[in-house]
Amino acid sequence: MFEEVLSKDAKNSLGSLGKSGLLDSTYLAGGTALALQLGHRYSYDFDFFTPQKFDEEILVQRISEAFPEFSLERKDWGTILGYFGETRFSLFFYKYPLLFKTHKLLDINIAGIKDIAAMKIAAIADRGTKRDFIDLYFIFNEEKIMTLEESLKLYDKKFKALSQNKIHILKSLVYFEDAD
Known about the structure:
Beta Polymerase, domain 2
């Protein structure tokens, strides 16, 4: 794992979160999880996901008690958004299954690259940021971990939606104009 993609504060926060056990039923995915595995860019946010429904009120209280530096930005059903210092934190209820085993870093479950690739395709189909396109570029071209075709198959296995969304997804993968 490429821990150097995290700032010192982010790494300390991640380690403290892992030691706390508060996020044992979650996994880190998104750009930070990918950057930790590929080392291709710096990342400044923690995107956690869980297939288990949770009580936002109770979990925010527990996080706030364990981490006075945590500041809540917003909470809704299945969603907690906030900051650990400068590091953005999100936790989402996410009903879609992991297809592969997670890895461990600092007692945090980290989604594997192939799961992240399928999630990146879904993200690009929804809103597509420049970082999402860069991440897929590294998965497909620089690291040659998998092909677009393989990732589309995993997307379908994970979300069961390729047949309904294939044209939209393929167009999204080549439409960069709205990427921020």
